[in-house]
Amino acid sequence: DAQLRRVSELRTRIPEDLPPAARRDLRARARRELPARLYALAEPLGLTVTRVSIRDQRHRWGSCSPSGHISLNWRLVTMPEWVRDYVLYHELMHLRRL
């Protein structure tokens, strides 16, 4: 599928050997930007997110618990906005159907 191939190519844009300072800066940016965007998308849908965590997940973009806790991969902050929003909406939809 072309869409999966595009996302896979995007994933390779983030080198695994980033300098520690660059990694720290990206993680800080993710903590600032991703939860705010997630809450903004959840509100008009009438969905309640109880907690947001920014994690260093190697094989997942995000996850959602039955209690409404959403974990997001810090690397999402390096993706184009459409990819970020797709992942955030995907996790939000788990609040409707796990």
List keywords for this structure.
53% helix, 3-stranded mixed sheet, alpha+beta, 13% strand, 98 residues, 3 strands, 3 helices
How does this model look, in words?
The chain is α+β, with helices and mostly antiparallel strands and about 100 residues long. It is about 55% helix and about 15% strand. It contains three helices and three strands, in the order ααβββα. It has helices spanning about 1-10, 20-45, 80-95, and strands spanning about 50-55, 60-65, 70-75. It has a three-stranded mixed sheet, covered by helices on one side. Strand 2 (about 60-65) and strand 3 (about 70-75) form a beta hairpin. Helix 2 packs across helix 3. The longest helix has 26 residues, at about 20-45. The radius of gyration is 14 Å and the shape is globular. The two termini are about 25 Å apart. The mean pLDDT is about 90.
- Rg on CA atoms, Å: 14 Å
Strand order of the largest sheet: 1-3-2
Helix content: 40-55%
**Global shape:** globular
Strand content: 5-15%
Largest sheet: 3 strands, mixed
| Structural class computed from helices and strand pairing | alpha+beta
Write down how many β-strands occur, each being a DSSP E stretch of 2 or more residues: 3
Secondary structure tally, helices:
3
Low-confidence stretches: none
How far apart are the first and last residues' alpha carbons, in Å? 25 Å
Mean pLDDT: 90
Order of helices and strands: HHEEEH
